[in-house]
Structure formats: C-alpha cells, structure tokens
Amino acid sequence: MDGTGWRPVKRTRTFEDVLAQIERRIAEDGLTAGDRLPAERQLAEQLGVSRSSVREAMRVLETLGVVSSQVGRGPDAGAVLTSRPDSALSDLLRLHLGLAGLEMREVIDTRHMIEQWAAARAAAARADISGLAAALAGMDAAGSAEEFVEHDTAFHCALADASGNRLAAAIMRSLRDSMRRYSVEAVQRLGDTSVLRADHVRILEAVRTGDPDEAARAVSEHLAHAYPSLFAV
Amino acid sequence: MDGTGWRPVKRTRTFEDVLAQIERRIAEDGLTAGDRLPAERQLAEQLGVSRSSVREAMRVLETLGVVSSQVGRGPDAGAVLTSRPDSALSDLLRLHLGLAGLEMREVIDTRHMIEQWAAARAAAARADISGLAAALAGMDAAGSAEEFVEHDTAFHCALADASGNRLAAAIMRSLRDSMRRYSVEAVQRLGDTSVLRADHVRILEAVRTGDPDEAARAVSEHLAHAYPSLFAV
DNA sequence: GATTCGGTATGGTCTGACCATACTGTGGTC
DNA sequence: GACCACAGTATGGTCAGACCATACCGAATC
C-alpha cells in the first residue's frame, strides 16, 4: 500500500482485447458449438487491429479447445466454434508434469477420486455397460502392453462417461492421457494382467447390479493392484 | 478403411513444430519453473522459422500457464517458465460454460466430488486449519454478497489446499472462479448466511478433530444448503 | 449431365519495420 | 567514492504487406 490510491495499470495487450471482444460476442449473440467466427482478415478490420493480433487470439482459443480452424473455402472453412476441452486439459497436465509442477502421485490420487465417484454414480444410475464390456473384450484380445493400456483407458473413460458428468469425464480422459506412458510401464512391471481383469469384471458387475458402495470399493482395490508402489488404500 | 494402407497426412503447422521443440528441450534439459527460454528472435533464428510462428507457440504456452512473458531487459525479462495451471483451467471452464458445452449442474457436481474428498483427506491428515479460520473470520466481517463469496471461496480453496493435492486444489480454484457470479446470486437469493456459517464451522471442526466421514458429510450438507435448487444429496 | 479449369476466400507463413519498456553501462557531478 | 542523469540496447508487442497451399465455387467445355 503506497497510500496514494494508485495501483499499477494492468498492461493490456491487443490480442487480449480481441479475446475479450470475441468472448463478449459469444455471450451476447448466444453463439454455440458449430457456429462460425468471421474470417481473420475481416475480424482484424472490424476491430481495427492487425491480423497478427487476431491470429494470436485465435491461437489462444484453439489452445483452449474453443475454436477449430480449417483452411480453404466453403461452409466448413474458417474458425468454427467447438467445445473440446479434452486435448486442452491433456496438454495442460502433460506440460505441468514435465515442468515438475505436478507429481504423478497427485495425478493418480485425483484419478482415484474421480473414478470412485464416477463408479458409484454409474452404479446408482444403473448406467449402460455396453461400453465397459466392449473395452473389456478389447483388453482380452490385446497382444501388447500398449494395446492393453489402450483398451484399459477406454474402459475407465467409459466408466467416467457413465457418470453422466461431462466435466468429470473430460478430466478423467486428460488424466489417463497424460499418464499413458506411466501406465504402460506399470502393466509391463506387473506382467500378469489376470488380476486386473478380475478387477474390471468386478467393477462392471457392481455397475450392472447397481451397487454404488461395491463399485467404489472395487475401483479402489483395482488401483491398488495396478499401482502398488504409489497407491495405499 | 480404404484398404490402401494410406492414412491422411496430419497437417503440421510451423508453430506446432516450435511447440514440440520447446517441449522436448524442457524435457531433455530438465528445465523447471523459473528458467528462461531464449528470446523470440533468437529462437526463431535457431529453429529456422519466422518470429510470428515462435510468437504463436509462445501464446499457446502462455495460455496453458507454462510460460510468462515480460517485456524490457534484464534477468526477469523474456519468456520465463512458470507452472500456473489455475488461470488456464479457469479460462477453459469459463469459455466452455459460455458455449453451453458444459452446464452449471456438472460444475457443481464436480465441485462436490472434489470437496468431499478434500475434506476427508484434510481431516485424516489433521491438516492445518489456520487458513480455514481466517477465511471464516473474513466471511463474518463481509458487508456484501460479493465480499462474502470472496471469503467463502477462500475457505473452500483452503480446504482443497489442505488435501495436499495440488492438482485437485487447482481444479477446485478454477471451478470456484468460473462459478463466482452464480455463487453471488445464490447467496443473494438465500439472504441469511447464518446457516452457511454453521456449516463452515462444522467442516472446520471435523477437520480439526480428524473425522473424515463427518467432514465429508458436512461438506455435502453445506452444498445442499447453498445450492438447494441444483443439489440433491 | 459430367468434366475441367480458373477464380477466390480461407488460414499459414514470412519479412521487415517501428514502438514502449526496462535494464546496463558510462560519464559527469557533488 | 557515492550518486545521478542519460544514451545504449535487448526485450516483447504490434503493424503492414506480401506470398503460399488449400479447398470450394462456378462458368466454360465436352
């Protein structure tokens, strides 16, 4: 506090203004996924800024999974509004893990939280289990650890989807995405996947019979089997 | 499947190459928060691309909360690696809520999940409650709904921090951030905040005495009081 | 009717310039 | 020697203008 009542003027960059304008337009005009934004050159002229600034704003929106840009001409070309938070979340987690701003332990703990909750939710709602069953079959047919993890990821993401909460499911997908390599190593270390298979069947059965508590327990013990070093029940 | 074995060549944009290179450098050189990246012009020359492409890559990294750019000259100028996922997550949620790609109901459900888990964790660990107490005092002194929500947010974020999981805490902060306006309206609708105060005291006590189940229950009932329309226990 | 081919609007990239900012070093002043 | 004023300089931020590849559109052609 310097007592003068002055506070530092926040530096506002041009592309941030552009972002704010676009966000305002989205809110005011009620734009939703599928709608098109004006072309870069047109937007630049309308806002009285250079195309570079518009492009930097577009890059931000694209990074956040809010727009998708297509080159060329026609109805599908240009910047189209989307709603794909998944890859944005994955990038975010991956980079921050790389910067040592996060630890794998925290990621797995968070995953445990979401998955327990999602399993209980899915069981309570007697959610559709066809996705779970398909992923289970995929794991049985897998010929390598990579392939196994691929279907394992599908299983757990299907479980999150079955919770009916798209936000939780998106976070789940990103978590799995950012720990893929780690999971492959864990499966290779484990060697035998029959324990994991039994766990998956148990989770599926709990959802099918509509037993939330059992579903949560099953998830918890499954993670303890898969990541014995990091995970204590 | 066209049977030819061909697959569409993924269009790779220059700035994406730059991103990949920077990410590789971070991993290989073991760069962490606080380290500096080369200047834009220098990076452009080293990678053989234009400064625009480098700038677009920088914009992406900045959006993801991985770098922070400072103008001027000196040790603090230039692009510095950071690890601030919070604002990135907030932007992401806010924009996707605006696009109707997410519903408030899902945000509050997710918040419920995290907070129940965090409260139980904090209680089990007998975490430090000074932050919770300070936020509680702030709420008592608040003169408006906005001010109340400010300290309420601090309380719940402190609870998430007390879980010891930075990822869960970061998600929590972003969730609160993106639902701020909604929370203010909820408090105004409620009028009397004494019920909320009792809930907060109950949560704090549960953490202090180390009772995880009671902490989770207290959080659950608190949310039911705060958002009666959206939340069914 | 089908095909071909030029026109055109789109994003992607590059170059080169200029600005505001904020440190750095130099030289002068007390 | 300590201090201060000022020019130098490296930084990100912005702009203008050009060119490219892409992909659709539509008219001319067969």
From TrEMBL, chains A, B:
<dbReference type="Pfam" id="PF07729">
    <property type="entry name" value="FCD"/>
</dbReference>
<dbReference type="InterPro" id="IPR036390">
    <property type="entry name" value="WH_DNA-bd_sf"/>
</dbReference>
<dbReference type="InterPro" id="IPR011711">
    <property type="entry name" value="GntR_C"/>
</dbReference>
<dbReference type="GO" id="GO:0003700">
    <property type="term" value="F:DNA-binding transcription factor activity"/>
</dbReference>
<dbReference type="InterPro" id="IPR000524">
    <property type="entry name" value="Tscrpt_reg_HTH_GntR"/>
</dbReference>
<dbReference type="InterPro" id="IPR008920">
    <property type="entry name" value="TF_FadR/GntR_C"/>
</dbReference>
<feature type="domain" description="HTH gntR-type">
    <location>
        <begin position="12"/>
        <end position="84"/>
    </location>
</feature>
<keyword id="KW-0238">DNA-binding</keyword>
<keyword id="KW-0804">Transcription</keyword>
<dbReference type="GO" id="GO:0003677">
    <property type="term" value="F:DNA binding"/>
</dbReference>
<dbReference type="InterPro" id="IPR036388">
    <property type="entry name" value="WH-like_DNA-bd_sf"/>
</dbReference>
<protein>
    <submittedName>
        <fullName>FadR family transcriptional regulator</fullName>
    </submittedName>
</protein>
<keyword id="KW-0805">Transcription regulation</keyword>
<dbReference type="Pfam" id="PF00392">
    <property type="entry name" value="GntR"/>
</dbReference>
